[in-house]
Amino acid sequence: MQQLNEMIFRMEELVATAMKRAMESLRRQDEELAHHVIHDDEAINVLRYDIEQFAVAMIATQQPVARDLRTILAGVHIAVEMERMGDHAAGVAKVTLATCDEPLLKPLIDLPRMANIGIEMLHEGVQAFVNCDPDAAQAIINRDDEVDALHDQIFRELLTYMLEDPSTIRRATYLIRASHAVERFADRATNIAERILFAAQGRLADLTSEATG
What we know:
CATH architecture: Up-down Bundle
Mean pLDDT: 93
Structural class: mainly alpha
Order of helices and strands: HHHHHHH
CATH superfamily: Phosphate transport system protein phou homolog 2, domain 2
Radius of gyration: 18 Å
CATH topology: Methane Monooxygenase Hydroxylase, Chain G, domain 1
CATH class: Mainly Alpha
Number of domains: 1
Strand content: under 5%
Number of helices: 7
Shape: elongated
Distance between the termini: 35 Å
């Protein structure tokens, strides 16, 4: 499992860097940095397929059973989720490209905070996977409420801008799009948490329902 874990650690690093750089490109309205984020997304995609191929080879040659098999399958699913997280980071970079010809509507405060929480959730998820720690997985899903609250706050604030001044609609709409991408980034971390429970306990639980029910 060591090599699989190392590949997942590497993918986590790429995805976290992508979101950090995407958010920085938006904050600075940096077109060049945004292009780098979009270009570098291909490396994340390639690593996802490398992990899938490695997992298939492990299953074929080692014929793992029970928990080992679940762990390998969970690793594949986590790679898929991280690949999509990379797509969400690229989505933020695309917002930069769409808006970099004019100043930001407002200073970015809550949006970078959301992104940082999502990155922390990703890191904690990968650590929980490697340690096969279901308690840590549950803690990840509990953090998702923080992200949802920030997303709702951003949406309400930007909606107020648009209602008070229609000239802000274009810029506000793009910032809402960026906020949605960051929220989905964090949602993918909760999906990773589900797979950690699957690997550790052999069950797939809807952690969102479990946490809010």
